[in-house]
Amino acid sequence: MNEPVAGPFRSAVDAFDQAADGWLEQFRGHPIADRVMTAATHAGEFSAIWHVSSLVRGVVKRRPDQIVALSLGIGLESLIVNQGLKRLFARERPTTSGDDRFEIRTPQTSSFPSGHASAATFAAVTLVGWDGKRSIPLWGMLAALVATSRPYVRIHHASDIVGGVIAGAAMGLIARRIFRALGLD
Known about the structure:
The chain is mostly helical.
């Protein structure tokens, strides 16, 4: 197993993960929080929430080219994260099937970085690029909710989310440049 951080920083990452899990535990068991976070985790499966959002947005704005571009971009992002980065690090998940209090799909890939967080950030960065800064609250909050749902249901460490956000943001910024060059803005 290759942990994403080794050596002297390892204890700091472990402390961060434990502190985040402790903070989230105070919300677990609350019926509304549990429903919202479980729904967010399910919505993030296979990037469904981003494909549906892109489809609705693209139809309303009459931008089918952006629907296709975001779907292809998310596909490439997912390939890089799930078949590249996750295999490179092969980090164990905090639990094998999530917290028993939540019914979620058991992932087949390793933990670091979070694919949900990466896809959410990639989509949000791309959509904000197209929709402008005023859309940051919508896309940013939706992405944060999906990303936070993963350590909430205990299928990811909090540091996996940080790694996913960084990976998704980097790929999203690259995609924005490519989409702009292709006239998709």
